[in-house]
TrEMBL record:
Protein name: Na+/H+ antiporter subunit D
Organism in which the protein naturally occurs: Terrabacter aerolatus
Transmembrane segments: 12-29, 38-56, 84-103, 123-141, 147-169, 176-198, 218-238, 250-271, 283-304, 311-332, 338-359, 371-392, 412-437, 493-516
Pfam families, alphabetized: Proton_antipo_M
Keyword field: Cell membrane, Membrane, Transmembrane, Transmembrane helix
Localisation per UniProt entry: Cell membrane; Membrane
Membrane topology: Multi-pass membrane protein
Parts forming coiled coils: none
Location (main, coarse): membrane
GO CC annotation terms, alphabetical: plasma membrane
UniProt GO molecular function: NADH dehydrogenase (ubiquinone) activity
Amino acid sequence: MNLTDVPVPDLVPLPVLLPLLGAALALAFRRSPRLQRIVSLAALAAVVVVAGILVWQTDAQGPQVLWLGAWQEPLGISLVADRLSALMLLVSAIVTLLVLVFAIGQGQADSDDETESETPLTIFHPTYLVLAAGVSNAFLAGDLFNLFVGFEILLFSSYVLITLGGAAARIHAGTTYVVVSLLSSALFLVGIAAVYAATGTVNLAQLAIRIGDLSPGVALVLQLSLLTAFAIKAAVFPMSAWLPDSYPTAPAPVTAVFAGLLTKVGVYAIIRTQTLLFPDSPLQGLLMWAALLTMVIGILGAVSQSGLKRILSFTLVSHIGYMIFGIALATPQGTAGAIFYVAHHITIQTALFLITGLVERLGGTTSLDRLGGLAVASPVLATLFFVSAMNLSGIPPLSGFLAKVGLLDAGIAVGTPLAWLLVVGGIVTSLLTLYALAKVWSQAFWRTLADAPRSTETAAALQDGTLDVEPASDPATAVLVDTSPRALPRTMLGATAAMTLVGLLLTVVAGPLYAYTQRAAGDLARRQPYITSVLPVEVRR
């Protein structure tokens, strides 16, 4: 019997259970790094397979529900896999697997470094697997409290991962991240309490029925409380200032998985609650303004930066605005564009942060003032960056272009002045993204050392010997690097290439994938497929 013959509800909890089981085994094997790696890779590879089956079977059979425990429905805990959550599971599982491969390659390459602490190496694998379980639980949660639990699982794991190594800058950035996360979690918990007080339930399907019976004022307060908590987690302006200061200091694989996934869990929660609980939202205009300001202010921040990590952190904030753009339109076409954009952005943003980790390894820095000639030093790395940068910028015919076209077309179809303003803002943001990433390409990869400017910091570093020039037969092709440059390990480079190829694969399968997201958006707009799958007939009232 193969997995496709297993009843689908029996597969639904596996994306949560497999990483948790793997985390327990990895912790038990803490004295054997090799066994830890095997267990972690096996657990996440199995999640990829299960998520792929769920995508196929939920598309064919509709939402799949598993009630946990012996509680009478709908009082128990439900895990729900529909087209939206199954797609998010698949993309997140692929990302976590490839980032883990990258992290394993980095750990092997640094194994001879005497400054490495054994504790981070011991706890990384179980903590990372718990993070993956939390992400999966958030996507599958069928009630608000289980969604809160999913957030807390992934957040507590992220607190450990973001501070691995214990450097002062990392601890400081981690403190900011922890404080903001705790604030958003507290707001979310207050929102859950308010929802339960007003409706007597936290089950999402039952809430979809009962919230319609509330007075408009009460429903608006509940919506604002949930939306505020999710907006902080998703880094929506003006609640996005924490992200550029938090992510750049973390280790490369941690930053990559954070950038790819954590904010998207917040976006997923906004999509789920806005479409299921508040389909006729009076906050549509507010969301449109938030989307516009997130796009424009985020990309202006990216343009003004001189460090690659901060540039990418600000573009991450900026492109969250595209997703909120699609949600704010409140049409099936806009929702489909937002879902497609989430899938695209998870893969591309992760690839770019992995590439940044390799740039830092090769050049000893991510400051554009101290880099040059990387295209000569590593043509493969230059190619990976160029492809991913063009994809994020929306150059045709890549998936970034297709995702943006879908959103812009949805905005034009709505046709209101604010929707048209969002369309213009989306185009400007795309052009400025291209400018910011072209600056990175020009300065870090394309220019030669002879063309690199000598800032005061760089000149001082050259003078005191902390910065040196890698020997080259032609000085014009030399690379400005740290005094101890490290080669690019094949495992790390291979994982980064695979992540970039996943982004390109989205372009190849864009037609079927966009059709899938349209079906998912149609289900979200109708709401009935979700409600009837979760609730017994006698409680649909």
